[in-house]
Sequence to fold (310 residues):
Amino acid sequence: MTITICGSISFYSEMVDIQKKLESRKIKTYIPVGFGGDDKKLKENLTYEEDSERKVKYNLIKDHYKKILNSDAILVVNLKKNDTENYIGGNVFLEMGFAYVNNRPVFLYNPIPESTGYKSEIMAMEPEVILGDLDKILEHFESLPKVYVASTSRLKLDAVSAGLKKVNFQSRVLGRRIKSGVPSQPIGFDQMLLGAENRLNRLKTLEKDFELLISIESGLAKVGKYVVDLAVCLVEDEKGKRQMSLSNGSNVPRHLAEQVFEKGKELGVYLQQEFGMQEKDVVNFLTRNKRERIDHLAEAIATAYAQLNF
Fold:
């Protein structure tokens, strides 16, 4: 589970304390950048124009937006600021809107402030007020329907979570290590489909209490004169109905495809070894950091789920 913490710079030290408490509960957290130390005092003395330039220079609004998209929910730390109880400023209100329209639950540390000019808008987002009890966040997610994924890959688990949120399906995503029964570098659509089906069928024998079962198998396929990196995604509900969707494909240059077809290498591992990639994200490499594999997988998961009742 991942939570993005939002709040006024005036509450920085409190947000750090809350971050530590959440992480002690095994919850991954994001916190705004550019907070703390001398930066806090500097920002409080900036004019509106100077503060705006700072946000543009360091891309702070877009940076935090991306963190929200990579999270399961946000926690708004709204404490007393000057004479205002439970303060929520314009920037945090904007972040709450980001979370809401992207189907991320909004948790408020304290009740909605009475003095804000956008109380009705905050109420319409239906935030859950936890009154300082961080365990309520855990309780919320533990109460959600269980979705099991036939993998423990963090990238795949995050992609499933993000994809289901796209169709507003709130769930608790759990991973299980399941073998695919196909080579580590699947070649061709049939091999990818077989790997995905093997994973899902084996997962189904292990788990009985679930809302959805999901498997993902990535690989390379020849499409005419091109070689494409893509994935097969399978989604099955508790009634046994199953749907398949393909992720977007990324064209793999010939010199890289040769490492797979002629030298038997796994493309993601080769790129890590040759170019120092930290993650086996072929999409990110091929698009020069403009796209990520999680984007492609999330869209495929959302599509397969949306077709379950077709």
User: Anything to note?
Assistant: DSSP finds 13 helices and eleven strands in the chain. The CA atoms of residues 28 and 53 lie 30 Å apart. The radius of gyration is 22 Å.
